[in-house]
Amino acid sequence: MKNRTAWLLFAMLSITLAAASSGWITIHRDNLCVTEGVIETAGNDRLSVNATKMRAYVNQRTAQSAEVRFTYLGGTSKETALGSGAIRRQFGLKLRAQDPCNLVYAMWRIEPESKLVVSVKRNPGAHTSAECGNRGYENMKPRKASPVPHLQPGQSHTLRAEMKNTELRVFADNQEVWEGDLAADAGTLDGPLGIRSDNARLEFEFLARASEGTTAKVEGCKTQAAEE
After folding, report:
1. What is the Cα–Cα distance from 200 to 191, expressed in whole angstroms?
2. What are the residue ranges spanned by the domains of the chain?
3. 46: closest CA among 23, 64, 69, 63?
4. In 100-193, where do the E strands start and end?
């Protein structure tokens, strides 16, 4: 028993050191500003969500590279429609989240259709949900793309997005599923990483790459309405 415990501790330490050496840092609950819904801790650096709408952003300086290592647990007991009226089960990453009206999404849609969708929400001059609502979305066409797995409850997967200037690459289970140029407007956005879910229950670990040439600086949460 002691040998098994020692081995497990060694394995966990090895994983932590490997993540650190690759430039990844774990985003803990106290480094997330939740603007809608609830994110809870689940142990071993994992977080959980069981809310019809969850929106959050990272209050720590990072590069525009994020990864979610998640277990999909199924749908929520109740469902909430999007601003358009559509009922959708999905979750994904936010990049360059300047405010609720101006940001980039890489969303893994689960139901009614399984696919990876990249959108830029752009509303120059608007900075709150009251000002922009669900306007300003543009689904971007990839240079190349591949299907994502159809998620089943209990399955574990990874979703990673990496953005440099206007170029975005998205990976599912370490396989590239989306690559393309988001155009100049997206490149001018300046904001943190974030995470979003709709009508989905998840347990996950949230990681980001450390900023190059700067130390990670924790900033206070800003009061803002969640994006639609």
Report:
1. 25
2. 25-210
3. 69
4. 102-111, 115-121, 137-139, 144-145, 156-164, 167-172, 175-181
Residues 25-64: tens digit of each pLDDT: 999 999 999 999 999 999 889 999 999 999 999 998 899 9
Q: Which DSSP symbol is given to 218?
A: B
Instruction: Tell me which fold the domain 25-210 belongs to.
Output: Jelly Rolls (2.60.120)
pTM of the model: 0.84
Rounded CA-CA distance 218/167 in Å is 26
Q: Whole-angstrom Cα distance, residue 26 to residue 36?
A: 21
Name residue, tokens 């501790």.
9
CA–CA separation, 48 and 35 (whole Å): 15
Integer CA distances (angstroms), 111 to 89, 155, 170, in order = 5, 15, 19
